[in-house]
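Let us practice reading a record.
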Amino acid sequence: MEIDVKEVFDLQFSPRGTFLTTWSRPEKLADESGNWADNVRIFKLDFKNKSYGLFDSYLNKAQSGWRPQYTIDESMICKMSNPYQLDFFSTHGGSKLGRPLSQLKTKEFGKIQSFKMSPGKNPSIAVFIPAQKGNQAYIKVYSLSNVKTPTSQKQFFKGESCEFTWNSLGTSILALVSTDVDSTNQSYYGETSLYLLGINGAFDQKITLDKEGPIHDITWSPTSREFAVIYGYMPSQTTFFDARGNSIHSLPPDSRNTIKYSPHGKFILSAGFGNLQGKVDILDRQAKFKKIASFEAPNTSVCKWAPDGRYILTATTSPRLRVDNGVKIWYFDGTLVYVKDFTEMYGVGWRSQPLEDFPPIGLAKEQCVAPHISAVEFLAKKMKLATANADKPAGAYRPPHARRNVAGGNGATLTLAQREAQQLRQGKVIPGFSAKKVIPGAVPMGASGSTDSQSKNKKRRQRNKKKAQGENGAASDDDGSSVRSGSAAPKPLKS
């Protein structure tokens, strides 16, 4: 079906795909009231009849925090009414949300920076209130049946933003807390800390990591019995913890910043995307983290497991990169099976399907998948380019201005010294080049080859020599006394 919505910048499906929520650019009404039109729209979808209807709409100018959240059965919806309040509505009340069933207010503690609804049959909601004006930061977990009193909470002083990650049962939550500034001046990206909380308040602790540096990624196993953390300066460290935060296994340090469990929990994808090379490793969790496949997916900005746990989607999207946008699908053994290029692509994902529709994975009974023709053509083109580049001689790097200076007819490139010698033989003046040796800072040589100071000294010596010769021109007596002509005799010395 096609839904006509203007100026859509973001969208979201509910857990079962019954509702589609869109966020459009805020615009004022056409009348003279000056009020803003509703820019968040919730559509109720009917895929069988290929129809839809507008369930509700409201105004939310900020693009951050606009997404409403649903319980796993889609019976309740939660949205932020203002920075100090969350409202909970029933989705069975007709064509509108109506009045809220309950409200969670945090004005006495501070503004809500982020919140996350849990999966599971007994849903809870976690909220994060950042530290402001000397006050502490708070993580509070509430049961939807009673949003007045938290069932679990954690408070600390360092914390400006938080990202929540629930396990599949909704019994424990990981809180990745970060600050913009690192007080130790060791990281440009600030500080990160990881906290583990249980919904019943039985335990809450800070996860201790044995390597300094930022936390790159965290993920829960679908079994809810363990989680993985990638942390530390590159090469980063990957460690697996049990549900109580105890370390159970670590991988060798490597350049990795992404980790994902397959839907069945059998495979683990460990990769280095973003500014890393895009190398992907597939590990078998049931075979003690044995590596079963590796492949490279450079420039990946989106990576997702398929609902059946057998395929992996990698994509390059805009605005992360505005070139080479497209989708690649891989089999879990590293085989590229599908390629689709786009001029510009903003997002991509798998259609939601229940895990119960797909049988468990057994390596012995899994069959190899024949690649699509798009993957065959892509690999052939890649091989052709690699072969063409391999045939070219790999010489030393030369700047562009020196690549066309070829000596004679043998095709050898002239060096800088050879080009200068050739220009000197041809009588050309080379800018900044002098055939005579010049000492930096010395006075330049004169036309006669001597400096000015040497010429002055030479003239002074000549004048002194002539003067001495004139004085020695008078006659001398036998006793050694001399009298100049025309001059009086010297007076006798007194005794």
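A brief commentary: Residues 1-67 form one domain.
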